Amino acid sequence: NTSIDIDSDKYKHFLFVAGGIGITPMRSIATAIADQKKRGRSVQLLETHWSVRDGVATAVPMSAEHGLTMYRTRGEMEVDPVHKVKNGRMDVNEVVREFKEKVEKTEGKVKVAVLFCGPGAMFTPLRLACKEHSSSSVSFDLHTETFEW
Question: Strand (E) positions, 1-149?
Fold first, then answer.
């Protein structure tokens, strides 16, 4: 269960952020939302941002409908024809800011469901970015699952 009701029509914009193995539950939820969209649910935007250390990214199949951008923090990753690949650490503030710019074009108040699963070190910057970029026109509602090693 998530702390926000992602199954209601309250959310039409979804931002998934994952670190490492945190992609596993995020992929599952993103797939469910994408399937609901295929069946007629009004989903305006769905993006998944995943920070990974190395080539393990190819072991988790995701389709184009997940809107996946992978960030490889060690070494170089080959370009994948389905996904966007960036070498280096994910800047979660930039991810949230860019997502906001995309949804600001929507009329009326927009509520964005932000779902995160990853290491605690990624959580604080994401929480601060959601707070900083929430406004009267766009609000970011954050659900988190964190883990530590």
Answer: 13-19, 45-52, 68-72, 84-87, 110-119, 138-147
- 82 vs 62: CA distance, rounded Å: 9
- pLDDT tens figures, 132-146: 999 999 999 999 887
Q: What is the DSSP string of 90-132?
A: --HHHHHHHHHHHHTTSSS-EEEEEEEEEEHHHHHHHHHHHHH
Name the pTM for this structure: 0.88
Q: Which residues pair with 70 in a beta bridge?
A: 50, 85
The order of strands in the sheet holding 84-87 is 84-87, 68-72, 45-52, 13-19, 110-119, 138-147
